[in-house]
Amino acid sequence: MLKNFFISNEFATFVVLVAAASLILLFLKGMVIETIIGAVVLAVAAGLIFFGGRKKNADRD
After folding, report:
1. Is 30 buried (19+), middle (13-18) or exposed (0-12) by CB count in 10 A?
2. Contact by Cβ (8 Å): 34, 26
3. What is the dihedral of CA 49, 51, 54, 59, to 10 degrees?
4. What is the pLDDT of residues 15-38, one digit of tens each?
5. How confident is the model at residue 51 (pLDDT cuts 50, 70, 90)?
6. Are 9 and 53 in contact (CB under 8 A)?
7. Maximum distance among all alpha carbons in the chain?
8. Which of 9, 26, 31, 47 could anchor a disulfide with 53, C-beta 3.0 to 4.6 Å?
């Protein structure tokens, strides 16, 4: 059960949320350039998770 969690979209979503929280902390610390770069990388990762998860679910049908 735990093995399936680590390869699931739920775990990926959790990782994205933790990364978003760290971006907020970077912004509050005054590291604006790093926050912008991190936000772009985070947006790409979230898009890959979302569209990759949809493709997997469509393949199951």
Report:
1. exposed
2. yes
3. -110
4. 888 888 888 888 899 888 988 888
5. confident
6. yes
7. 47
8. 9
